Amino acid sequence: MNTVVVDPVTRIEGHLRIEAQTENGIITAASSTGTMVRGIENMMIGRDPRDAWAIAQRICGVCTLVHGIASVRAVESALDYPIPPNAELIRNLMIGAQFVHDHVMHFYHLHALDWVDVVSALDADPAATADLQQGLSAWPNNSSAYFADVQQRLAGFVGSGQLGIFANGYWGHPEYRLPPELNLLAFAHYLEALQWQREAARLHALLGGKNPHPNFVVGGAPCVLDGNAGRTAMDRNGRRLMAQIITGMQTFVDQVYVPDTLAIARYYKDWSARGEGVGNFMAYGEFPDALGGADDTAGLFIPRGAILNRDLSSVLPVDLDDPEQVSEDVSHAWYDYSAGNAQGLHPYDGETRPNYTGPTPPYAHIDPQQAYSWLKSPRWQGLPMEVGPLARVVMLYATGHQDTRDLVDASLADLELPLSALFSTLGRVAARTLETKLIADRMSDWQAQLEANISAGDLATHNADLFYPQSWPASARGAGYMEAPRGALAHWVVIGDGRIANYQCVVPSTWNAGPRDAAGQEGPYEAALRGHPLHDPAQPIEILRTIHSFDPCLACAVHVADPDGGGMIQIATTTGAAL
Amino acid sequence: MTERESFIDYLSRRGISRRGFLGFCAVTASALALPMGAARTMAANLAAAQRPCVIWLSFQECTGCTESLTRAAEPTIESLILDQLSLDYHHTLQAASGEAAELARQNAIDDNFGSYVLIVDGAVPTGEQATWSTIAGQTNLDMLKETLDGAALVIAVGTCATFGGVPAAAAIAAERPNQSGAKGVGDLMSASEVPERPLVNVPGCPPVPGAMTGVIAHFLAFGTPPELDDLRRPVAYFADTVHQRCPRLMHFRNERFALAFDDEGARNGYCLAKLGCKGPKAHNACATLKWNLGTSFPMLSGHGCLGCAEPGFWDRTLAPEGDRFLGSAFYPDAPPAA
Ligand code: SF4
Fold first, then answer.
1. Is A505 a catalytic residue?
2. Do A358 and B91 touch (CB under 8 A)?
3. Where are the domains of chain B?
């Protein structure tokens, strides 16, 4: 038996370590370790709930808006605080833009180098690459001269002897299967996507003032509509710009991202039978109806639900307030529960006391029999669940969403693969691409609704009625959910006397990357790696492919409260004297 | 691999025009408020240079600083990584993982000892909590020490690496409010916990991308950091407050204030001070450089400034008065009066 260690896993957000046991070149067991923690939930306690979004948002600067949204929704849910339809539309547009921006960057900048051999692109024939591009889509950068230029740029770079971010990649690994022309085309789009994303991010700047870390506010959106030209961003020109940005996103998705995904997938079809994971899927749902608001879960574009054992015929209801449903287990994490680690806890009652019992750094190995991660193990009715693009596409498919069915069926037909191919590393990559198209297309509707409201004179973006603490009940609690690009996310907040009494976040990468639970059930990453053959254990590209297919976001996944012991922190909410 | 060549040879072989190159130098020189003629000196120096090695270490961070850098207009991230720098270690972007990644860092240190630029984002946990963040089984503190040794310049980007930021924000109810003993690079140097090296702080949560690229460009051209203030921030970006450059300033002076986020005053561009804006105490370049290709910045869209580049801003250091922790750090506690 051999152990393969990958630490740091790069091209992700945050700090992740993977250890895999192999026998005869096959992975027999794997463990996933989050190696960084900051203590963000604990910082919430005692603060004004209106401030929580800004701190929570700093959990992650990649999926930069998701914790801000989950946080304002949690506080609004606790305070029974309705927001204006325009604010809901602004949030939908910003969440939509986040999906499109994030998924495209994940594909080209974080994941592509697992499938695309950059060095092989030097052998490509630019004319043949141009033919290839012209056969894929109407994307205008399709001439032989263009690809010759990109190739020359790459040749110059490689020839300089300084390989920079491309140094020590597994170039030439026999698992790279694309022809040189497709490698060159993908490298050209790696560069184009860097340029494209700067334009896409401008939508957040218009509506939230900046990106990364745009602004939000409890009770609405901090964005004036149809304001004084030159002194406000969303004046007439800003709105015109927003329309252009949305078109630019849709065009890139249709003409570059979707065709590239399918073209590359064709060479890796065996990856449709590998990397499934746990086979259970969950989504909280996203994109509320502007009038119904986030409470109206029946109005969500992406539905809420759980699917077990790949059974698409049955979508089970998910309730964030039910103490029997969502829980977090810490039996293999560096935390202790006051009542012992055999039982998980629902987030309203969540407690998290760090207790690092891992090896003393510098260390070579972790012991998966003991605690081995800063991530907890979230469970739904005791089961590990995969969240993210594949879960959402499966949910849309299972509930009969026609556009999703058409898109998935056509893509699978194109690749000559069965529906079961979705449950795999390749299926996860494809699901991410396809949902990007579904969401990008939808953005035009929200934009049109916003324009219609503005034309009708409705410029309200904030509800001031419940904004100030004087108007709040003495105690309240609520859950704010959302679909982050990486999957189902929720924050649970308990408010007492105008301040936060407890705050818990259960986030997508904790669902996917968490360690084993008390019953020994593996998390989705760990389950997905089992059975992978490694061509060369010294260059474990196969591990990277499957782990990257989940799009890890580790800063999100790790969180903690109460480092100094004693269960949930009690604070003197009236006087602050105990602080 | 071939021998290393000069930057200008490299650019010309890459087909980058001399004009485009001079344009970049001019833009950067003006953003840094350099004297006339500096652009030409910059161009001449840059042209002779090799692409310098950059090692980027990410500790207790959220990757927002890297994301922000990718939004830079000039120079772009593409030209930085392909044309201007040799970014030899950067977790989010580099191809290599695991041992191959650590080998890349070691090679970069060995081959460029004494001359590389070290960029740090994220705070560093210390003391017993050093185990709160490890990479390749090594604590952040050890990795920082090891990598600082051969650095010619250190650039701390983001409020976490400069002043402790989010990881150092108070857990108010805990006995040890800075839970992980998180520190910025400058504090670690002052406390002699890591070797002292020339340091530039570029705070912001995240920093304005142009402020990061401006410092890099200055170092590329002159081999030195730009002029710094007493918090080691580049004067060009941090001398003024956001308030001094805010388009709502005229209304502030005339005492015209928005009282709700979407009232007529807000739409007219009135001042956001009564909704909590911290602009008068916030040193940063948001209002001058703006965000996302000049698209907007918080006050232009409609939210006050959080003061995210100031030390301790999470813990009410910019709030008007009162208990350090009681009440909101960002909003008024009662409805504002006209
Ligand atoms: S909005 Fe803020 S920065 Fe602008 S003038 Fe008013 S107080 Fe100053």
1. no
2. no
3. 7-237, 240-323
